[in-house]
Amino acid sequence: MKWERIPVGPIQANAYILSREDGTCVVFDPGGEGDKIVRRIEEQQLTPLAILLTHAHFDHIGGINELKQKWELPIYIHEKEKEWLTDPALNGSAYFGIGQVAIHHEPTCLRGEQTLQIGAFAFELLETPGHSPGSISYYCKEIEAVFSGDVLFLGSIGRTDLPGGNHEQLLRSIHDKLLTLPEETLVLSGHGSETTIGAEMDTNPFLHGF
């Protein structure tokens, strides 16, 4: 199994394509430039199975419509942010001058921590609110990686000044849900380069003293 990071959209959020040797793949957070993601999937002759959302801010959902026009893919999102897909005020696109983003496709809503099985892919869902109320981190034990969205970054953490953000809740999510993963776990976040759980435990200044 392999992953590919594709920075997309006006603020270069990370979309990810996770693929298996059998040619199937899933797409995390197609936040913009959906045609670019479609082309990359076609170039690799992959068969996409699903769109997985860590949360529903505009820079993580803005490319969904292009993928849905090409393939009839299920969209997975936490139930707390279902309405954000269609509401530019909630997903933030109404305030950033980049055009209003609305996704008018019915998603599959997730609730509670569970194992999500999609084809041969298996993910442990970790509820990690704080950056947004329905933030989810997807832990893939097979590749020792967690797709953390905007919860945890290399040397930083997610912002909490947007609607529904809560700084203390975010820190609690990181400590209780992410820092309990094996230290070698790759953190594939919503912006910037990858890091590891161990590296953030040792060096991330936002996590010390909590």
From TrEMBL:
**This protein's UniProt keywords:** Hydrolase, Metal-binding, Zinc
Record's SUPFAM superfamilies? Metallo-hydrolase/oxidoreductase (SSF56281)
The UniProt entry, under SMART domains, shows:
Lactamase_B
Read off the InterPro entries from this record.
MBL_Glyoxalase_II, Metallo-B-lactamas, RibonucZ/Hydroxyglut_hydro
Q: Name one Pfam family in it.
A: Lactamase_B
> Which terms does the record give in the GO molecular function aspect?
hydrolase activity; metal ion binding
Q: Where is the Metallo-beta-lactamase domain?
A: 12-191
- Identify the cofactor(s): Zn(2+)
Q: What is this protein called?
A: Metallo-beta-lactamase domain-containing protein
Upper classification of the source organism reads: Bacteria, Bacillati, Bacillota, Bacilli, Bacillales
